[in-house]
Structures are given as structure tokens and as C-alpha cells.
Amino acid sequence: MNLDLDLQTDYFRASDETAVRTVMAEKTAKPAETFESVRAKRVDPTTVLRRLVAALETKEFEPGGAPDRSIWPTGPQPWVMEGEATEVDRENPWMTGPWVVELSDETRDALATVERKRLPELAARWARAEELRPLPNAELLQLIHRLGVLARRAKKADQHLYCVLSG
Q1: Under a CB-based contact definition with an 8 Å cutoff, are residues 110 and 126 in contact?
Q2: So what's the architecture of 8-76+86-166 in CATH?
Q3: What is d(CA 69, CA 79) in angstroms, rounded to the nearest whole number?
Q4: What does the alpha-carbon distance between residue 137 and residue 124 come to, in Å, rounded to a whole number?
Q5: Other beta carbons less than 10 A from residue 63's beta carbon
Q6: How confident is the chain (167 residues) per 10-residue block, as mean pLDDT?
Q7: Among 67, 34, 25, 74, residue whose Cα is nearest residue 50
């Protein structure tokens, strides 16, 4: 994955990976247009979102942890590239995206605990992430709130949270 500053991330809720894969395979609509979603530019699920979850759980962020489960593209992941991408590499959906990952239900449940009274504290803690520094505090507050609402609705409907990443 090419995780650069132009990374677009949309978090959404869906019943299961089959529903997500169907939308991705049809290519007539994007998941963010099909499912209830929250746009969160540059908030990748592996690092930046996990920093928010750590803030929610009032613990320090630790890199690593269990990876999110890849839903799209399907098929085996390619080898690790050594050197410049070739023309064949640029045609591989694993190299070009979009990519969809399923977040753990633990992440969904942690996000579902977001309370309005904690928004300023959470925004202050989350703003420490280098990737979020250019965002104004008001945008972080709104984003945390919207992610919390999305997670609560997913949990209530017994759905999962997903993230589509595109360059």
C-alpha cells in the first residue's frame, strides 16, 4: 500500500464482508456512497485510528498489535517489492488500491464508547499524532464524534466497521 499524505480513508459500517466485496466488485458505487460512512482523510486504521482507541482506553499508544483483516482486493497478497515498481506492479490491485480492511469488533466497541463530555480530552490526546497536526481542533472533535456515532450504530445493528483506503 502506498500510504502517503494523499491517503483518503472512509470508515463505514456493513453487515459482513460479502456485502462489502459485492459493492467493490460491481465498481458502480463506492462503499462510502453505499453504506453509512465517515470520511477521515489521512486517518489510517493501522496507526492513526489506533491512537484514538488508545486515547479512549486512557492508555499510551503502542505501535503494532493485531492487523486489521484485509477484505479487498481478494486473492493472495503479492510479494514485498524490492526496488522500483514495474508496469506489471502498477496494474496489480494490491499495489494500486483501493483497499478495504475490516476493523476488529473490539475497535468498533471502543469507538462506540465516545461520549460528548470526553470530546475535548480525546481531541487533545489524539492531536499528538503527527499525522493529525495540520487539522484544527474543531475538525478533530467532529471527526471523533462522527466515528463514535458510526460505531454505536454498527454495534446496535450487529454490523462491523470497515475502512476503504485509496490514493
Answers
A1: no
A2: 3-Layer(aba) Sandwich (3.40)
A3: 18
A4: 8
A5: 8
A6: 63 96 88 94 88 84 68 68 58 71 94 94 87 83 96 98 91
A7: 67
**Which pLDDT does position 113 carry in this prediction?**
95
Note the pTM of the prediction, 2 decimals: 0.84
DSSP assigned state of 113: T
- The count of other CB atoms within 10 Å of the CB of residue 7 is 19
The cell numbers describing 67, all together, are 492487523
Rounded Cα distance between 124 and 30, Å, is 32
What phi and psi values does residue 76 have, to the nearest 5 degrees? -65, 140
- Find out whether 38 and 17 touch, Cβ atoms under 8 Å: no
Domains of the chain by residue range: 8-76+86-166
CB 36 within 8 A of CB 160: no
User: Which letter does DSSP use for residue 79 in this model?
Assistant: P
